[in-house]
Amino acid sequence: MDPDLFLTIGIVLIVLTIPTLLAAWVEGRAPRVGAIMLIAALGLVLVAVTQQPGGYTFNEVPDVFLRVFARLTN
Q1: Among candidates 5, 11, 8, which has minimal Cα distance to 42?
Q2: Distance (Å, whole) CA 65 – CA 48
Q3: What is the pTM of this model?
């Protein structure tokens, strides 16, 4: 698979993990689902960074999102 896709999915999962972790913390529950999502997201980002020659910079991330979105819509 493509490292750009891994990075995009990983970042989207990280964003979706934040409300899950906060909800579990507010309700006093153990954040099991949030922790699993966070581990999966960090794993995807790590795979993307290690498989991309030269890695990614923060300035490249918006371009990566646009490339992945353009590929999915085309």
Answers
A1: 11
A2: 13
A3: 0.88
